[in-house]
Amino acid sequence: MSVPERTAGFLRSCIMTNNEQSHQIPIREERSIFNRAFEEIELIGRHIEMLRVTKEMQPIGIIRLSEVLGVPKHKVRYSLRLLEKEGLIIATNEGAMVSERYEEFIISASVQLEELIRCIKAIKHN
Length: 126
Description:
CATH class: Mainly Alpha
Radius of gyration: 16 Å
Number of domains: 1
CATH topology: Arc Repressor Mutant, subunit A
Strand content: 5-15%
Structural class: mainly alpha
Shape: globular
CATH architecture: Orthogonal Bundle
Helix content: over 70%
Largest sheet: 2 strands, antiparallel
Distance between the termini: 40 Å
CATH superfamily: Winged helix-like DNA-binding domain superfamily/Winged helix DNA-binding domain
């Protein structure tokens, strides 16, 4: 599967519009307390997927990242700025490249995501 196909599938499976969400969750009032959490998860997913695509296609520019991820350019710029500030992306004349911290971050992110899943399951079962 190509990077664009995998990325589009990943983002579609993780990000739903409010209309899609309201069809799945009948009690609209309860859904609203989770909106911020869903927004943050979407943002984390976008940052991680942007890092993975950058690693596979580096150096890569904003326009190409936007096309591959199906994300507006302003959101790509925002994510790249944040990732550069965190020391995970290096801006070059040819485009973005991942830093030497990439592998360590991906491992750490996996551990942290598993911890989030564990916490959510604990809340769900209480």
